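Re: that chain you flagged

S.,

Sorry for the slow reply, it's been a week of failed gels. I finally had a moment to sit down with the sequence you sent. For the record, here it is as I used it:
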Amino acid sequence: IAALALPLAVLMTRKHGWGWETLFVLFAAFCTLVLSYSVILFPRYVLPITAMLHLMAAISLGRLLMATHARPVTQATLGVVAAVVMLATYAPVCADFTHQFSDDSRYALNYWAINNIPQNARVFADGYAELHDSALPFARQRRDVRLRTHFILGTMGDLQRQINAGEAYYVICDLSYSRYFEPVAIPAPGHEGSSRNAKRFYEYLLTTQTPVWSAKEKRNMRAFTSPEIHVYRMTPEMFKGLSEKAD
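Prediction finished late last night. Pasting the structure tokens below so you have them in one place:
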């Protein structure tokens, strides 16, 4: 909406012509084109475009107010109303985001795992869950757990062998698995099979199994803050449905 509003505002006030505002439109279009070729697209990658769109919206609002040729008092009043609407819309989101910074789900996972995962348990985790991070308490305090992390657990080469080896905990994080459920995402050339298997693994856990612990924020900021995390305690028998669907 903001990207369309700025050109509209410029056209409505042609005496100003196409000036430096054009750079905003070109910058947003260029970044969008570049990101469309990203192999791994995280929503936070579009932050420069998001900030630019908000700036464009503010400029558009100012241009539209000037185009009304209303009295300064009227223009100021409309500006205040717009500011109040924006604050009412974004203040709760900003407050929630600040809370997510201070109470990240990965910290909650660490403390839950310390107190609930038994000794000598096998634990397999997405790298983004950060159970392996030595700066966090689980990795320092629970060396009695057989922990193995993989950047994307669903693509671990010997995953099926580990599943067959016995009971284990599986920790999945949406920073790892959400890419497989993006409708516009396509596998990298040569990785179609592993991508299908990874999606099948995550989909099986998410849709057919009940986690023993989960963290899911009210608002998914689709950033790098407080990701959605699920922990499953699984036996080989519980994976029977997944094995039947494997390639």
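What I noticed first: Strands lie at 122-126, 146-150, 168-173, 213-215, 229-234.

Talk soon,
D.
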